[in-house]
Amino acid sequence: MRMDVEDVSQGYDEKLILEDISFSAESGELITILGPNGSGKSTLIKTICNIMAPRTGSIRIDGNDVGSMEKKQFARMVGYVPQASVFFSYTSVYETVLLGRRPYIEWSYSREDLNIAANAMIAMKVDEFADKYVTELSGGQMQRVFIARSLAQDPNFYIFDEPTSSLDLKHQLDTMLIMRDIIRRENSCLIVALHDLNLALRFSDKIMVLKDRRIYDFGTADEVVTPKMVEDVYGVPAELVSGKHGKYIHPYSEKGSDG
Amino acid sequence: MSEAADTKDRRLRLLEILKNNEFDDSLEGRYYTSQRKKILYILILIVVIFFTSVIALSIGAVDIPLTETLKAIGHALFPWWIGNPSESYYSTILFKGRLPRICLTILTGVSLAAAGQIMQGILRNPLVSPFTLGVSTAASFGAAMSIVFGAAIFGSVYYMTFTIGSMTMNISDIATALFAFIFGLISIGIVLLLTRRNYVSRSVVILSGVVISYLFQAGIMLAKYMSDDDSLREITLWIMGGMWNATWASVFVTLPVVIVCVIFLEKMAIDINTLSSGDEVASNLGVDVQKLRRNGLIISTLVTSVCIAFTGVIGFIGLMAPHICRMMIGNDCRYLLPTAACMGALILLISDTVARVVIRPDDLPVGIIMYVLGGIFFIWMVTSKNWGKRV
Fold first, then answer.
1. What CATH number does the domain located at A2-88+150-224 have?
2. pTM for this one?
3. For labelling, which of A17, A31, B348, B383 has a CA lying 20 to 30 Å from the CA of B224?
4. Which of A255, A49, A23 is nearest to A159 (CA)?
5. Domain residue spans in chain A?
6. What residues of A are in contact with residue B283 (Cβ under 8 Å)?
7. pLDDT recorded at residue B10
8. CA distance to partner chain A, nearest, from residue B16 (Å)
9. Predicted ipTM?
10. What span, in angstroms and rounded, lies between the C-alpha atoms of B148 and B142?
């Protein structure tokens, strides 16, 4: 499957957030969206999830415009995990993950739905909390529950907005590894906004960098993540270091002692 | 295993489910157990409502022995099989006075609790109910307008009656219900306008309910001021909320509305569940959030208005019943809605029965009892440690 984003612009009221956004994503790819705070990552993600209709331009999946697609059909193709979830519900973890099956059912969950949701919880290692209320969990555990819900949704495109922001180091790596496994196995696509350049460098097939409402660069990890990009986009001098297990970006401050 | 042992085993299992002891320890098995538990709660509530109704039927200004009550009901259902009760006026009291009142009480409890539960889910706000959003006051205003100005607006048509089968209906009652609905809808329109923005804090919603109440209260005061003595008394009693107006006609007007609305709300329940994860996730799960919110609020307003048009303002039931049930069975709207509806019916039925006997042979407006109960409940809820989590 293929998603084509063409000349999309987006904004709130008068304010323009995104301009001239064009790119394609294909099954099997892991695409990272990078960019400083306020560069429009979240807006882009909400736009490709059809939560906000684009102001201009079009988004197509296999040639079909998503705006005219039936909502349920779209929900089976694109799964969204928001950044920080406002969650104040007396709902158990299992029920929350089961919500991912909503696009497939009318009113009640079948044994198969229950099974898929259970496996999603096991994959994200939240099955031990199945009967707990979501509000009783820590921020990181909650984030894993939400990712599990998107797994239960079983879409062709997983679209995550900073899913690792409140996870600890181990769970960040675990989550990315699990997701990479899943998209390889299911031949689906993951588009994920991240802040951590090194996480992006390590896992992405392609990286998109946003700056000043536009795409600064889009390409393979090696092409995109360069000291020049980091300097241009984030305003921080950096060097690309080759370690034993691959390359990593080392930002340094000129005034600091570690440069 | 013999059949008898099998039944016994199953009965034991039901008990174990109620005690929360699971059998199948897999995730799916536990889910099924909890589901069965929720259904059991609903069934138990229905049975309790039934027995409470029978007791409520037999007590009142005149106490009728329980056996005679059962006999009268039996005779009405199977006249060829069960004989007449010993006193013929028993049947008159039961079927002309108490039974329609009990039916209307149950219907009102169901509709207010269901509407409260749906509003709480849709607005993700635990303090919301038809009463706290100002729908009740707005509907009161509509009813007061109809009581005071109905004759002037509709002319002589207002006083006409018509009969369907053996029931007599007053045009004035229908006009009152209609006016209550229209003004209830206006108030919910204001709430919808206020909550259209993506994030509105819980207190703003409640405050807007308070403000809406004040606005319509001003209208009610005006209507009172301009009315004659008869209308004044009617309005005052109506606002207190009570079940005096219960007739078979009112039951047959409300019954279909309540049934249809509750079915629609139950169909929405699965989508309302998705709202708990936020509007954006709900939208990504294929739910048209705007439409769901609009339809849900309109249907809950309809069902509330039609009932309170006959009973007057009855507060807090839509707040209390869903909360009590949420503590029992959790927040899955598909099961919470019927449970809350039954709980609402039960609370109102018990309250109204108390209202009928506490100063007999007179009766108190049940609204007064609900205000006291609800006020205490509200204070408890706001001061309890984790009320914020309960929606």
1. 3.40.50.300
2. 0.86
3. B348
4. A49
5. 2-88+150-224, 226-259
6. 50-51, 71
7. 64
8. 18
9. 0.88
10. 10
